[in-house]
Amino acid sequence: MNEGPNIAQIASLIGDPARANMLAALTGGRALTATELAAIGGITLQTASSHLSKLEAGGLLAQRKQGRHRYFALADEAAARLIETMMGFASSRGHLRYRPGPKDPALRKARVCYDHLAGDFGVRMLDSFVCHGEIVSDGENLSVTDKGRAQLDAFGIDLSSLASNRRPLCKSCLDWSERRSHLAGTLGKALLGHMFDQGWARRSEESRAVIFTPEGERKFLLQFPIDP
Amino acid sequence: MNEGPNIAQIASLIGDPARANMLAALTGGRALTATELAAIGGITLQTASSHLSKLEAGGLLAQRKQGRHRYFALADEAAARLIETMMGFASSRGHLRYRPGPKDPALRKARVCYDHLAGDFGVRMLDSFVCHGEIVSDGENLSVTDKGRAQLDAFGIDLSSLASNRRPLCKSCLDWSERRSHLAGTLGKALLGHMFDQGWARRSEESRAVIFTPEGERKFLLQFPIDP
DNA sequence: ACGATGCTTCGATAGCGATCGAAGTATGGA
DNA sequence: TCCATACTTCGATCGCTATCGAAGCATCGT
């Protein structure tokens, strides 16, 4: 017994409702201040501060001081994937906590996951890349083919500028609403950023939803078709 | 706030050290009795019983009565994947709890994950399938090609008999020691079972390790080669 | 320099849950 | 039938931690 990594430690960090709410909110990719996170968790600032320092010590969060504000964000993409994985499992077991509202369908359609596109549109985009042979997958890691490189170049994304030693270019990330994978990594981030730049879509102010313009949606479906 | 699945509930289930130890032990795929699990968790039978009923209510465990024994096992493969994912994250953050010993290298080399092969050998096997075009991956799910079907047939595994409506044939599962994917699903199970049947390897009695015979290891490396 | 804002630290409280002893239920064997 | 084994349920205890008030520290604006 007692072999291997200590999962109880991080699980208990996520296991507190206030902390879980904060983490879920940070899955939206935006860095939030301690005051904002306290409101999200439904607790006072003092309590939130205690929680946040524990989460940081546990390697789930990273903080950045900026003036008198302190911004908190998920430590990295692996942390975001862990949270999304747990969401997927929880929803598959019926551990739901829905407060059904108009935002829900929008979230399922398209939302931000850390810094890339998730939801129905995110899954479709990766499907399109794969079924056209622009991205291939060897197990967990994805890689871009020459055909994909040319396609992305035409779309306006320069792969060579995305190279990073700290973070993989492509990574698959399990989608909790679709239960399939979407594209993460620096390429996933760049693609979402490009869509924002092109005016195809914008972020919702109060949730993780990504709202496409009618024109943007048309162009998205044209750019990432799915053939049988 | 408060949207989406309730991750705090399952996270707090895993967050208790005694429960985490039990779950980690069950990742070995064997069903264990309440008494055995109590010993693993380092608690009395009464406490263990309370824990086990909570884990079952949370959808993580399934129990099977057999005479006066009650066998507990992970509910399904998704539960096993969740635990392995958490192990991967925990070890990447240095949340280790090693009791270094001779078993450790054996576990990294080859071990059981639920009912399929994990560790260095598990990752190698999937790599071999993929780099020979016998299995292709479209995002999360893997699928066997015609070439792969023939290869497996020659190896002695009949794919058509593995079809199941309850569980996918192929699934990728993240390996906590290698941080790469290995092959899960009914095919992963069948492959490991076949190796046991052929006498290539056997299970360790006291841990999750899979111990290959020298002859079995030679045949394994020959059967699942990796070319550049 | 001074107050205001954002956040952390300290200290005390309160409540939840892990734990175990004791008693109760079910199954198997003699 | 009677005892032993395997497990669950009940009840009480105890420790841990989430929580918040109050005070302290840092930064910004003026």
From TrEMBL, chains A, B:
Span of domain HTH arsR-type: 1-94
CDD domains for this protein: HTH_ARSR
GO biological process, any: response to lead ion
Taxonomy, superkingdom: Bacteria
Pfam families noted in UniProt: HTH_20
PROSITE patterns linked: HTH_ARSR_2
GO molecular function ontology, one term from the record: DNA binding
UniProt-listed InterPro entries: ArsR-like_HTH, HTH_ArsR_DNA-bd_dom, HTH_Metal-responsive_Reg, WH-like_DNA-bd_sf, WH_DNA-bd_sf
NCBIfam families from the UniProt entry: HTH_metalloreg
Designated name of the protein: Helix-turn-helix transcriptional regulator
Organism: Aliirhizobium smilacinae
